[in-house]
Amino acid sequence: xxxxxxxxxxxxxxxxxxxxxxxxxxxxxxxxxxxxxxxxxxxxxxxxxxxxxxxxxxxxxxxxxxxxxxxxxxxxxxxxxxxxxxxxxxxxxxxxxxxxxxxxxxxxxxxxxxxxxxxxxxxxxxxxxxxxxxxxxxxxxxxxxxxxxxxxxxxxxxxxxxxxxxxxxxxxxxxxxxxxxxxxxxxxxxxx
Length: 192
Prior knowledge:
Helix content is 77%, strand content 0%. The protein contains ten helices and no strands.
């Protein structure tokens, strides 16, 4: 699914494929998967497809369902997954112009990520929280979070597996740096 979405932008094709996991191809019903974690992941991915197609309210509904479903999962990865699902929900609220709600949800995502002790989830959550604060106009707090992100990035830079996970938060950071007029730092981040 990831390859279709992010490399080819094939939201509609993946959406049609994923519908087959629901009774009568109806995403408002419970997916035909046994584990709550797999159901939640499927709901989240269908939400990503719908968001990519511009159906933000429908995506929001599926993200909320994915969060509710993952909370019932009984495994150690549930909090890290929930954090990712919260980040997606925060993005939907940004796209809908509801920055206050996005900020609250991004803060919840970071708490979950920190509780999970999953560095990947934490990096994503810090990026979304910093971006939400930036959009909300709280540039000082956004800057603090971006500096935290930069410190983590410096530690993880040697590990190639973190490159993909850091790319979106670094784009957020570069946009923030341009907003506050620090063009030299933005250029340095772009060249890394």
